[in-house]
Amino acid sequence: MKTSLVIMAAGIGSRFGGGIKQLEPVGPNGEIIMDYSIHDAIEAGFNKVVFIIRHDIEDAFEEAIGRRIKNICSDLGVEVAYAFQEKDNLPDGIDPVEDRTKPWGTGQAVLSISGIVNEPFVVINADDYYGKSAFKSIHEFLTSEHADSELCMAGFILKNTLSENGGVTRGICKMDSDSFLTDVVETKNIIKTSNGCSANDTEIDVESLVSMNMWGLTPEFINLLKDGFVEFFNKHTEDILTAEYLLPIYIDELLHKGTVSVKVLSTPDKWFGVTYKEDKELVVNSFKELITSGVYKEKLFS
Fold first, then answer.
1. Which of 141, 206, 274, 298 has the most CB atoms in a 10 Å sphere around its CB?
2. pTM of structure
3. Residues in Cβ contact with 261 at an 8 Å cutoff, skipping those fewer than 6 apart
4. What is the per-residue pLDDT across 214-227, written as a single tens digit (0 to 9) for each?
């Protein structure tokens, strides 16, 4: 069964004033975070990799990872494809907005794979490390028998996503007795404390599951995403130059309409990512520990 790993990489570099820090090596042989995600996805059974990028970073992306991954995937029988997120790449019936300066967010990013991905897929951020367990759980869900409207997401344990350097914002998952998502409560400024963690002096259960925007989706979902973009576009006439069509917000809208269900798949692995330049040292040391403990080989794809 064909299943795809979709990597949202169109936004890389934007938080560093144009420098693409997410493409800098973090592994012992020049690996970047995406290498580990691709490795884990292929190991879990995904057999197609789709990069969502921008045309203006295409050369840097090819040099940092694209050519190398194509060669590795070719040897493994894994397909590689590209989709491009540009601000004027819009669904039929929507005219480009002349004064808009940037693309439309993660919802539009996933829309760019229309016609390229026609199979169940997992979508992730390029600069986040998710661990092996989440890929395995999502692949098992996507390849099991379920309705087109049944989606899934990886639920990370809150304590495994906190930062040593300050407060973070996390979407805390509320679920029913069968682990289906009922709500995501965005909680800002969560910090570590001696007893666990808190947000604005309110104690929070460190064992809570949180969303790190790792979703298991169906090809039929892309059609819903197109319809949602039209609704979004018509709703944001006053702030159309800055409004963003965000994947988790749209999924939440569908969830509350009863259009889709979302199974929360708990994962024990630690999440980490490159959000700021200062994060790189922590990421490098984290991968060293994973290699030392035998989670990865020093030569990743050997």
1. 274
2. 0.94
3. 149, 150, 151, 180, 181, 255
4. 999 999 999 999 99
Asked if residue 202 has pLDDT above 80, the reply is yes
Q: Shortest CA distance to 171 belongs to which of 154, 186, 191?
A: 186
The pairing of beta strand 181-193 with beta strand 4-8: unpaired
Is the pLDDT at 92 greater than 90? The verdict is: no
282 to each of 161, 255, 269, how far by Cα in Å? 13, 36, 16
Say which residues have a Cβ less than 8 Å from residue 107's Cβ, sequence separation at least 6: 225, 228, 229, 232, 244, 245, 246, 247, 249, 250
Closest CA to 46 of 149, 122, 104: 122
Pairing of strands 272-273, 128-129: antiparallel
Residue for token pair 């991905």:
117
With vertex at residue 146, the alpha carbon angle to CA 138 and CA 210, rounded to the nearest 5 degrees, is: 40
Nearest to 41 by CA among 92, 78, 8, 14: 78
Q: What is the pLDDT of residue 17?
A: 47
